Amino acid sequence: MWALLTRDLRLAMRAGGGFGLGLAFFLLVAVLVPLGVGPEGGMLGRIAPGILWVGALLACLLSLDRIFALDFEDGSLDLLATSPMPLEAVVAVKAFAHWLVTGLPLTVAAPVLAVLLNLPVEGYGWLVLSLLLGTPALSVIGAFGAALVVGVKRGGLLLSLLVLPLYVPTLIFGAEAVKRGAAGQAVDVPLLLLAAITLGAGAMLPFAAAAAIRVNLR
Amino acid sequence: MSIWEYANPKKFMQTSAGVLPFVWGLAAACLGVGLVWGFFLTPDDFRQGSTVKIIYLHVPAAMMAINAWVMMLVTSLIWLVRRHHVSALAAKAAAPVGLTFTVIALVTGAFWGQPMWGTWWAWDPRLTSFLILTLFYLGYIALWQAVENPDTAADLTAVLCLVGSVFALLSRYAVLFWNQGLHQGASLSLDKEENVADVFWFPLLVCIAGFVLLFVALVLMRTRTEIRARRMAALLARERLA
């Protein structure tokens, strides 16, 4: 497990691994939105929670097809499937590795971009906390989507069509938590629901994803 | 005599061929009677005027949009557990029909919302969850289209349908949390005091029955088409081998 995790991380860090691509995309979203809607601070501050969450979600989407596609092409996914480690654990480890190289950097970078978007000061802590709780769900759900389309050539677009509807609850609770935090309201309910989605998805989706991979390797 | 007999494509084709004309006839009769009754023989609502008559298309379509997904969920489960091909093909056949009903519900809802709420669209929980349901249907259909091997496609879409059902339900309650709505609550429940008045209720029942029958007829027909397409593919493959 440890070997698989370090291998995935090393592959992601190397050139062409796509590490940093998501971050750059996230930065671009945060720069482009004010250019599109105008520089007026009050409005930016109001839409900042939603923009940051949507940006994080799209940045996460960008690198999803790498979770399994490359391993499927060069055959290492077959090796992993026949290894003594259960395929469910492989999926979980790969989703975790994906989170480490996308979700975690996004969470760390989010406060900096929140400055650009004029998020009220009260929202910063909740932004980081909500992303920390929510982005693992994005990675796990994404791993499930990637497992579904791993056998499809050029499945990137299809992947986003499949995965984005599944992201709806995470997005709603995540953005709502930041919005309430920025407005100084109680945030425990959306944060708890967000954590529930992450835990539920983390507990169940590896099984569905592993089933999909088995079908695709058949 | 059990339902599993119809897992045999031959048996299914025979029976459905016999049943289909009657289902079509009943569907046409119910829809004809229900819609004419509803559109021309019921009074206008005293506040909504004649726009209330959109109900005869809107409500049955919305009900069937959800029921179609439930039917897909059940047939997907049957496919995953018992590996009956007819079941997987029925799920495949139902998806575009369900999508069409979802779109009908959204469009008639927009036509109803415009005079009543003053807007074609509002980010109301019910409207939003229907839009999300549309996206789920689109993804499901796209996955069927994208995967070439039919058995692989059936397996993958069945898994997607299972997971999608959970997330569709989650989204349904998540949007409730996110916004309060304009849309009225349930007014057709059997156990509530305040419901739609009987004048509107009976033609609506006929229309709902008509939509259910229409759905059954369309799905049967589309499933038959899928089975025939599968047979054609098998014949072609055999010819190529010979």
From TrEMBL, chain A:
Keywords: Cell inner membrane, Cell membrane, Cytochrome c-type biogenesis, Membrane, Transmembrane, Transmembrane helix, Transport. It is a multi-pass membrane protein. The keyword Membrane applies. Its main location: membrane. It is found in: Cell inner membrane. InterPro entries: Cyt_c_biogenesis_CcmB, Cyt_c_CcmB_bac. The keyword Transmembrane helix applies. Pfam families: CcmB. The chain crosses the membrane at residues 12-37, 43-64, 95-117, 123-150, 157-178, 190-213. Required for the export of heme to the periplasm for the biogenesis of c-type cytochromes. PANTHER family: CYTOCHROME C BIOGENESIS B-RELATED, HEME EXPORTER PROTEIN B. Belongs to the CcmB/CycW/HelB family. This is Heme exporter protein B. It comes from Paragemmobacter amnigenus. The lineage of its organism: Bacteria, Pseudomonadati, Pseudomonadota, Alphaproteobacteria, Rhodobacterales.
UniProtKB/TrEMBL annotation, chain B:
It comes from the Bacteria. The keyword Membrane applies. Residues 16-183 form the Cytochrome c assembly protein domain. Keywords: Cell inner membrane, Cell membrane, Cytochrome c-type biogenesis, Membrane, Transmembrane, Transmembrane helix, Transport. It holds the Pfam family Cytochrom_C_asm. It is a multi-pass membrane protein. It is found in: Cell inner membrane; Membrane. InterPro entries: Cyt_c_assembly, Cyt_c_biogenesis_CcmC, Cyt_c_biogenesis_CcsA/CcmC. Its main location: membrane. The chain crosses the membrane at residues 21-42, 54-81, 93-113, 125-144, 156-179, 199-221. The keyword Cell inner membrane applies. Required for the export of heme to the periplasm for the biogenesis of c-type cytochromes. Belongs to the CcmC/CycZ/HelC family. This is Heme exporter protein C.
